[in-house]
Fold these 2 entries.
Entry 1:
Amino acid sequence: MELQQLESKISDALKKIEHPTYKQSLGELNMLGGLEEDGDAIKLHIKTPDPDRKIQIALEAQIRGFITKLDLPKKVKIKFSVDETLKPEDIGNRIRGVKNIIVIGSGKGGVGKSTVSANLAAAMAAKGLKVGLLDADIYGPSIGKMFGLSGKQPLFGDGQRKVEPPMAHGVKVISFSFLLNPDQAVIWRGPMLGKAVEQFLYEIIWGELDYLLIDLPPGTGDVQLSLAQLVDLDGAIIVTTPQNVAIQDATRAVAMFQEVKIPILGIIENMSEFVCPHCGKSSHIFSKNGGPAFAAKYRVPFLGDLPLMTEIMESGEEGTPFAIQKESPVQKSYNEIIDRIGVEVERYR
Ligand SMILES: Nc1ncnc2c1ncn2[C@@H]1O[C@H](COP(=O)(O)OP(=O)(O)OP(=O)(O)O)[C@@H](O)[C@H]1O
Ligand SMILES: [Mg+2]
């Protein structure tokens, strides 16, 4: 094998080995220093951002494992040299390239978290923002359908460790439903659940994003807590309906986010009023003003309200969020909500 050919093989291999400290591949970190003939051996230069010998030894073992498989006629010597310029900027518990990570939650189920997440994400993309949407509801994933991405999706890797998310309406979407057959039951619990969520955060090619929205399952359980530990969340949005029961559950959601120190960007009241599909008149079928009163009580911003409309429900079945279907008061409301979110995330920066 020619030296050049070998170099390209090793370069490919380095893309598949992850640096334990920086959570990037050796390829991404540019650690390949080059190859040279060295008497009857080959010398492989590996540049390393930190001088830790233990890490070097572990990495060397992984590189050797790969080289052994090539069955080369010559011996390969691996030489590490420290190059601190390769050290990536410390971004803590963040996803590289993603500016804001926002979770969308509620205490109660069925208040429209997924519908709001889908419409919000699509409306953001229509405004020119770069958006990703992660459906973290592993028990009842519904985001896929709302984007017309039903059931199991063919997911393509980049030849390294990461997976490209499917894109619909300008939004990069990932959902547990893409991995499962429609009638497959999910039995993940505790640690497994955390691992699955972690993979969705860090092993997806999100690229550069203004917003990564995370649609949470209902309640205040495992997923919420593992997320808060896995990644620095920039804020939470709480969706509620106006009636008292939903508001009580929203109180629990507020308490949970405050406990894990995630800034609450605000409240969105969904199904505020019913718009009659026949006459177009609106009526408050639930009590009026629950959301704004709630926001005032907990001193969190009120981001906006959204009506209950047959078309919104139908759009969730069709696969194109209503907020981007046509110009409408709903579209306007979403755009205002997006502006308010923009103001809030800046406040906490
Ligand atoms: N503003 C709305 N107008 C009409 N229908 C709506 C509206 N918001 C949500 N829905 C409908 O209500 C149902 C529940 O909404 P959705 O699935 O978004 O709630 P959720 O809070 O995500 O539920 P879960 O807690 O199960 O995840 C869906 O059928 C959806 O289409
Ligand atoms: Mg949902």
Entry 2:
Amino acid sequence: MSMIEFHHVSFVYNKKDPNRYDAINDINFNIEENDFVALVGKTGSGKSTLIQTLNGLLLPSKGYTKVKDFIVTGDKEIIKKLVKEKKYKKTELKNFSKLRKEVGMVFQFPEYQLFSETVLKDVMFGPKNFGFKEKEAEEKAKECLKKVGLDASYFNRSPFELSGGEKRRVAIAGIIASNPSILVLDEPTVGLDPNGRKEILDLVKKIHQEGTTIIIVTHDMETVMNYANKVIVLKDSKYLGMMKPSELFNKDDIETYSLEVPPFYKFKRYLKEYGYKKDISEANDLASLINILSEEK
Ligand SMILES: Nc1ncnc2c1ncn2[C@@H]1O[C@H](COP(=O)(O)OP(=O)(O)O)[C@@H](O)[C@H]1O
Ligand SMILES: [Mg+2]
């Protein structure tokens, strides 16, 4: 069994309205435990909609999203079937509080979710909400703040007076303080400078290395290339495929995916276009490319 499964997932906004909009359409794929998955696609392709089915913020209009043993669906036929077969109780299919502890969700501009008067209190909110006692929540919050690189001098500061990157790290600390096994981040580096961006991504990498499954929505193909082990492409509400990042960027028809190609892969294309004959298809980092280029003929 995969950690996460999408089974024919579709979602329609404003279903009963003339403005109805099919934001995602018949999506099927699986994510394995401890994957680091990048979800990419043009603005409006359905990325944010899809990930919100992971913790029941949005319920698929058709099909279902499965996370471990939890099922998320608003599809009446599926609910009826699962209840009839006694696989789930109706109440289990409507209550997502346990699921939300498993799936930590960092939204776009997570700093807007900060609200407490001190950094420490903000990070304690999640664990307290999930039933930790005051003292335990405080210990957990301190541990997570350390993990995101904010030492004790930050604990009693107002989250609102921090830099953009620091605010995001506080928000991430608040999410991981509930020990989620899956962390979902929707464009977490938008608006940060290169340093802030790298800090956030290296932090996500560390959280991944400690055993958390990661799904990150991004427009930044360098992030895909340098951090993810798999990339999933959405286009016009549909799933185009899941592959290794190098496989995606080496595709001859990558234009059809409407993505920005990283400079490294653009350079490989130029080499081919300008008549370089040796096989460079296996070179997916600068060192191996230089190796091939500098070999004797
Ligand atoms: N609350 C909403 N009501 C109606 N349409 C929406 C809503 N949220 C998103 N959409 C539409 O659904 C489509 C997919 O949106 P979204 O999942 O946010 O895409 P992405 O995250 O890839 O940019 C877009 O065309 C968007 O306009
Ligand atoms: Mg989005």
